[in-house]
Design a protein that fits this description.
The complex is a heterodimer. Chain A is mostly helical. Chain B is α/β, with parallel strands linked by helices. Classes of the chains: A mainly alpha, B alpha/beta.
Amino acid sequence: MKWFGACMILLCTSWFGHRYSMLYTKRERQLKQLIFSFHIMDAEIVHNQRPLQETFSIISEKVADPLKQYYQSLVNEMETIITNLSVIWEKETDHLLQISALQKDEIIVLKQFGHTLGDYTLMKQHEQITLTITYLEQILEQAMEERKKYSKLYTKLGIFLGIFLVILLM
Amino acid sequence: MLQMEEIFQLFSPNVKKMLEEKVYNQSNQLEEIRLRIQKPIELNFFQNHILLDYTFTEQERMYFLRQLTNHSIYRMDEPFKQGFLTISGGHRIGFSGEVLTDEKKIKEATFFNIRIAQEIKGIAKPLLNNIKEGNTLQHTIIFGAPQTGKTTLLRDLAKQISDDGMISQKVAIVDERSELAACKNGIPQLDIGVRTDIMDNCLKQFGMFMMIRSMSPQILIIDEIGSIEDVQAILEAIRTGVTIICTAHSNNMDELMERPQLKSLFEQQLFKRFVHVTRDTNGAFSFTMFHKKNEKMNFYKVHKR
């Protein structure tokens, strides 16, 4: 019975450690998807001059959740007459922070981009998208380094914390 | 009023409410809405105009542009080059403002003219008998001053020719400014008849031959001819066996004949029917038909409902 309890403690702490380390992997994956979505946005806006609602709809079909959900919500919001798109963008971006592994740095970049969205000429809109992609790529680089540094650390920390608790309780 | 909804929704709720109040009961009389930055919004009816007690501010301008493009102002690059945009319902919005001379396009549009599209079904019916000889329609030119109803007449004429049980013919429209059929993604928003094909947003001189080559029309309809290129294309097209029906700006027959760009068209006496369109003080449309350039054939009036 004692051994069973010890195993359970070890499993639980390891699982939490693993889950925490997975947040780094998820953030990295979602950041890559976010950058990919901005490349699609650039192509659809600059080359096809597609309206934003259609562009968001196309992106939502090409990316996975939670970004799929994010862009789909924007499409749905734009079904009705909206007075200010940047307000809607900000609201949906705040919601994205809650449902994704993305962190404040990239959310700030997204919000800043939202203030420029749709109000510029083709060339300026292209510049804004390119600039945002550059910022996001810098954040991705940092995120990759962080993952390398901390991902394994948290997995190991979970296991060691479990062993420590088991020793302490025995 | 339903037709106006497409225009009203381009304005902020305050302006929309004011417009609805002012236009209520006389929506069919409204011809233009003029917007000038830092100036009151102007409504032009046929005989009079009203200045709204509301200034068209920068905020209002941005609201208008955002709604016009569904929050995608970058899509205005092409319309800013052309100087106009046609929206659902066939209404045309003209722009002016600061121009980028290098790129020959408007950099910042600050003045707008929303021209309300008019669709008066049956307006061309009496004309039909006058432009045919036997069962053959004749080359016809419709002329008149701006805003007298030339395009409205031409649109209905396309429908009448296309749908008429007696003479039903294949009609092709080269709609350079999307005014006749008001196509949106290639789908006509206005009724131009069942046997009508449209080449939308295409330069007239190219569109005419593309249509003749690919769609084998019997009737070719062109709006607002005016350039040397248009005339050259018509002179070519008229000899391919299609019947040309077109419009041109001119106050009267003499001025039409003297228009430098169009002169060569009349020297060869290719047009067999001339239709002069005018507007009466009560808003009624008057049409005077001429056989060749000086033999008056018929006259009729249509009152705007």
